[in-house]
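Bug report

Summary: structure tokens for Lipoprotein differ between web form and batch submission.
Environment: batch mode, default settings.
Steps: 1) Submit the sequence below via batch. 2) Compare with the web form result.

Sequence submitted:
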Amino acid sequence: MKTRKISLILGVVALILSSCASLYDHYTYTETIATKIQAVSLVEQSNESYSLHASEVTALKNQLQKMLAYEEGKAKNDITVRMWRVLNNDEKLIKSYLTLWEEKGTLSPVFIGEAKPQIEEAFDILIAYEEKKDKKTEATIIDFIDTIKK
């Protein structure tokens, strides 16, 4: 009887703890990786004429919007939504990079080399959070977002 009571208490505690946060979502995880690959590939090609890659840029922008819409539809998902909003912000990270590429026509290898790690980091942080869903990766996302806002 005592073992059953302890098992019941542990089950209730586990249920309460799991209901406080969003759970791992394989779709989000794989699509975030795919979006990162798509974004980094375009950054690496931005020393070429924008016009050669305009349709790929449009596809990436659509993917970013799709992921934001998907994440906004999930409950208990504020941190992930905040990060996708940063990635969808026209004045931050990948979206501002794509706008600059469109305006300039081509970007220099030096600029590409400086921007690429920042864009990769944003996706890597999001991927790590989706994979682990722990306080450390949550704090990393919050710190990153706070730094980007400055």
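Above is the batch result. After comparison, the two runs are identical; trailing whitespace caused the diff. The CA atoms of residues 5 and 131 lie 33 Å apart. The two ends are 57 Å apart (CA to CA).
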